[in-house]
Amino acid sequence: MSNSNFEGARSRDDRSNVPLNPEELETLTKPKVLISGAGLGGLTLAILLHKAKIPFLVLEKAYEVKPLGSALVIGTGAAPLLRQMGVYEDFLAIAKHQNHLNIMDENLKPQWTLNYDWLEDIGGGYKEYIVARPDLYNVLWNHVPRDRIHLGKRVLSFQESENQIQVHTSDNSLYHGDILVGADGAYSAVRQHLYKTLKATDDLPKSDDVALPYKCVCLVGQTDVLSPDEFPEVGKDVCQFSSILGLTNMCTNDSFRNSEWGPEAAVAMCNEWRHLKVPGGQTGELTLGDYIDRTPKEYIAKVMLEEIVFDTWYSGRTVLLGDACHKMNPTGGVGALMAISDAVTLANWISTLDVPHENDLKKIFKQYKAERYPAAKEAFQSSQLFTKTLGKGMLSVFVRSLMKRLPLWLWRRMLYKSVGPRPQASFLAPVEDNGSLKPFYQHSLQKTLAIRQERGLGPVVQEEQANATAV
Ligand SMILES: Cc1cc2nc3c(=O)[nH]c(=O)nc-3n(C[C@H](O)[C@H](O)[C@H](O)COP(=O)(O)OP(=O)(O)OC[C@H]3O[C@@H](n4cnc5c(N)ncnc54)[C@H](O)[C@@H]3O)c2cc1C
């Protein structure tokens, strides 16, 4: 079994007489953070820790990064943080503005339109965008030092002692750190190991002792670049986003359970659904098959859409973020924003720590959960409401009729709720927020800013920071 530590960082127990340089000294007083999972949440945390000069290592099970997944809605809620992280320009270069969503029936007859035009005004001056997940992934990936991400490292288990945590990966390596962050997605190995340990001592709440519940199965993919001559809608400045209510064609066949984002289970579903009508194209006679045929097969995935918010988010030196502790239906379009918001909240608190004792961790993890759990619950409920628009039952019929007649004031209120939280990092220079309505109070920002001020600490200044000027 190989025993790996943070390369370049000397251990606290190193008794050699070689004097430490100032950078080593600074590193020695900081907690060492192991992150399981280089997804959107894990990479955001990695960038933030890098900027806060906190030593970290990301362990990712994949051997290479594949451009899997399709589109994500993101923008207004994440913009201030992306600016602080110095990635906003890169983000804008891959993003397409979204200001509406058309809902149609399966014959492509328009049902209602959700208008997002106000978002910029109530969302701090920031627009909403659609991005291809692989593109957003690349943007974040490119801002993490390459040697800080170790690929082909599937986290299997971990063991805690009084002073550290030891993580075991599938290639028989051991990693030591002060904190383990489970950012390893809906089927998080960190969560599973943590819950198993807690269950053995009767400390796992019954609500968490469950298999992941899911209600729908989803086919996702991303076509090759389409020509505007053949598909005029791709030439438009604003994203033409449509949602189709396939009420009579609804899928009831659940023969193929699949828990990973990957191509394996997709082929049968493609064949089953390729005849469905979809909007767009020159002739207006497109079917899903026209898009499937323009999508590389290895980049089509069939996934189950699990829906749960777990109650246990931390214990000892271990803490969860993103899909590992709350998994939403993507219809609500909040999964990525939630993971990113978890990451900045956690980074704010970790940035206040010196080498932590377990009790210090308990305090900051408690604060982290107190801020993020209610947000996750609320996002979960609103995701479920959006999912209801796609269903068949009486409640779905009611929700659809409500959506068609939604008063403007209520829609504006719903939008503000979703983009009101615009989190920022307390250890980076703040970014201005210029909307008609202020962002929501962010507990971790205010509290950790106060801690920094007490210690006479300003923002960590970095080269890219200088470019992230106010809006
Ligand atoms: C390949 C992929 C494609 C996706 N496509 C879409 C999409 O098109 N639309 C959408 O709305 N959402 C998509 N999602 C989900 C979306 O990215 C997440 O809901 C959201 O971003 C939350 O991110 P996360 O970091 O918590 O989890 P994820 O983004 O799921 O990342 C988890 C990471 O942990 C890694 N991992 C898992 N187990 C282990 C382990 N034992 N040890 C080490 N690493 C591990 C995974 O390989 C992955 O890189 C996709 C997720 C993935 C992984």
Automatic annotation (TrEMBL):
Q: What family does the database annotate? A: Belongs to the paxM FAD-dependent monooxygenase family.
Task: Please tell me whether the keyword Zinc is annotated for this protein.
Answer: no
Q: Which InterPro entries match?
A: FAD-bd (IPR002938), FAD/NAD-bd_sf (IPR036188), FAD_mOase_fung (IPR050562)
Q: Keyword set for this entry?
A: FAD, Flavoprotein, Oxidoreductase
Annotated region (Disordered) at: 1-23
- Protein name per Swiss-Prot or TrEMBL: FAD-binding domain-containing protein
Limits of the FAD-binding domain:
32-203, 300-382
Q: Which organism is it from?
A: Podila minutissima
A Gene Ontology molecular function term of the record:
FAD binding
Tell me if Flavoprotein is a UniProt keyword of this record.
Answer: yes
The superkingdom of the source organism is Eukaryota
